[in-house]
Design goal:
The chain is an alpha/beta fold. The structure holds malonyl-coenzyme A and adenosine monophosphate (AMP). The site of adenosine monophosphate has 18 residues, from β13, β18 and β19.
Length: about 500
Amino acid sequence: MANPLYDTLFGRHAGRRTPFLIPQSGPVISHADFLGLAARIAHALVDAGLAPGDRVAAQVEKSPQALALYAACTQAGLVFLPLNTGYTVEELSYFIEDSGARMVICDPSREADLAPLCDRCGAQILTLGADGHGGLMAQAARHEDRFETVARSEEDLAAFLYTSGTTGRSKGAMLSQGNLISNAVTLAEHWRFTEEDVLLHALPIFHTHGLFVATNVCAVAGASMIFLPKFDAGALIELMPKATALMGVPTFYTRLLSDARFTRELTENMRLFISGSAPLLAETHAEFEKRTGHRILERYGMTETNMTTSNPYEGDRRAGTVGFALPGVELKITDRETGEELPQGEIGLIEVRGPNVFKGYWQMPEKTAAELREDGFFITGDLGRIDEDGYVGIVGRDKDLIISGGYNIYPKEIELLLDAQPGVLESAVIGVKDADFGESVLGALVPRPGAKIDPEAVMTAMQGQLARFKQPRRLEIINELPRNTMGKVQKNLLRDRFGG
Ligand code: MLC
Ligand code: AMP
């Protein structure tokens, strides 16, 4: 049966015995082994009563089995909904409820906490641990390693990825099979990925970068991945001589550079270093070239659009820019008030259109209409400019967003929690410069008249409610928030004051 995404990424490798996943420890998994694993999981999911279009929410540690769960969902026509492993049970509840997930796959340590919620929502629950064991694999082991692929079309949904918003309520970005295929094929060609490539895969697999960029590109090309559970500079340094490519957020590159073992000789087998998800400082680009002789290739994208621009593979990879729109993708810079396209050189909102652009936000037609124009252009909320040679530069963000180590953090979500703390009249959350994560979270708190805020108690209160990466690293108590004449908080003044 035709299932374009499954066929393009996975099905085409039936019978191939070459390595697909090379774990840090444990046996190498060939393309054929991986398909067998995915098929068994697909049987387990269908056996549990799931039907095409049903959502499968997964908060699981990175493992070959976790990746096979994604392939299994694709093969069975299920919508895959991966979730950051850092999310608290409180945060997870919203995603599970909002998506109407019929199946939740979680770490065994989370099962007891999530079971009541799943009961209430009518979702089933199965476990998958970091070691690849648990209820899901126990079910899968009972089945054969072939599964009749469920027919799908490019219009059918393949995944939901939740992305936070300026109101503090997360939105489920709906990605179709066609969205993912177009980007995977384009990027594999653009970056010259082949069966000979070995990607050092150290990104998480619950976001666009690690899942739809890194994994899909390797799957399309028939390349292999050294599949690391997480980023660890020492492991990357040890394994780099066996690899040909690395994809990472800027923190990967600054951390590698701060290690004296990371040398030109070490990178001799590498042909490509790609950076994205957050701005790569021009100085990091220059230092990297000086140390290794390689010019990092920076690209730009987001959850809703997959990748939209890339520096050239051949030609000048220009520091401080994200290159050109990818083949098939249109990009323009528009006036934020009128929506009119601006002349070359002017700064405005980046808008993009193409087969990569998502289908809208799940059950949020008004949010979809606000960001996705009727003519198909998506308003990214990033501010950019196109230089005289056509390179796109990102100069800032129109949206109130912090990017810390490649993770997006929406201040509103944190402000709502801070405002509810004892003694707090109001708060403002900003990103301040951070040498490791690029930006880190600072909360400015204004006390109620006569009240005293206990910063330690505030921090403790954040712990049960927010994933660690979103928790403020610093709290400042101030008399009042700076506001303009319209009453809007002037976060730029706070950033000036506290080191943004
Ligand atoms: C971990 N911590 C973070 C953090 N990552 N805090 C803020 N921001 C982050 N990104 C916390 C840890 O919980 C820990 O808390 C402390 O910070 C120190 O942790 P660490 O051991 O130094 O961090 P590490 O585990 O090494 O993780 C850092 C990292 C990781 C940069 C390797 O965050 C990472 O892999 N980031 C990639 C994110 C990503 O894939 N983004 C793509 C989104 S898709 P404690 O309790 O010990 O203090 C997208 C679209 C596109 O944006 O264009 O790609
Ligand atoms: P996400 O919503 O997690 O997919 O994050 C997407 C956002 O990350 C974009 O809207 C940008 O603000 C930012 N981003 C991604 N790549 C880059 C890049 N190369 N340079 C600067 N910002 C980037």
